[in-house]
Design a protein that fits this description.
With 273 residues, the protein is α+β, with helices and mostly antiparallel strands. The protein is built from five helices and 19 strands.
Amino acid sequence: MNFSRILVYYNDQKPLNASLAQEVAAWLSAQKVVAHISTSFENLAQNDLLVCMGGDGAMLRCAREAAALQVPILGINCGTLGFLAACEKEDFKQVLTDILKGNFLLCERMMLSVSVHSPDGEKNFCALNDCVLRADKPRALTVQADFNARRLPPYFGDGVLVSTPTGSTAYALAAGGPIVAPGVEGLLVTPICAHTLTQRPLLLPADGTLILRPILKTPLDGACLSLDGQNNLSLAPDSTMKITRAAKNARFLMTPERDYFTMLNRKLNWGCR
């Protein structure tokens, strides 16, 4: 891969990252790389690499924008956890030096394609971590589920969470789901606070189609959908959600020493004694 044009992105709601973005862009320019700083993705298609200055929230936002263009992402953690990042902010010079020399791993992560069908029409979204269907009020919700045209037992509880393997270490983990390594492609369906002792997380084949429909008992009931915890919408009555694997993966650049299991241990204390 040749990285001659690089977009350095940071969230304009996080002004403290602006100075670091300028430092990264200046360092790249000194290496004879055309580097641009932006708080939007307007010119992303004209670049060979997207450098994300931020935490995991910024990485999720970058993944949704870059996947369709197949622009790889390098995350420099300026946030709290930084599970998806390639390095911490104090290490960016060494990591970028390695990247420009070709010393990196290209990691592909599957994404979700979510189509919302309602009497008002169809809306399409993508997500890297997950999509969550829940009631719009703090009460239990029944969700009807079908996978590959086969009816599943209904879910009754706070909602249903559908995640990718990448998202298995996010909300799904907090909801009691398993950790799924990124190379295991599948749709992880996790009930949220299910009102039963028998409903458990379910890992489905990635090439299938999952249909979810909230069952609303009265006109006062409502449901909402959240994608990556960042895109949220209220659902009209009689809405259904079709969830499949997205046509294109997110592409992350990682260093060889920052492997998945090391990050589980370092960031989430997996296996610590």
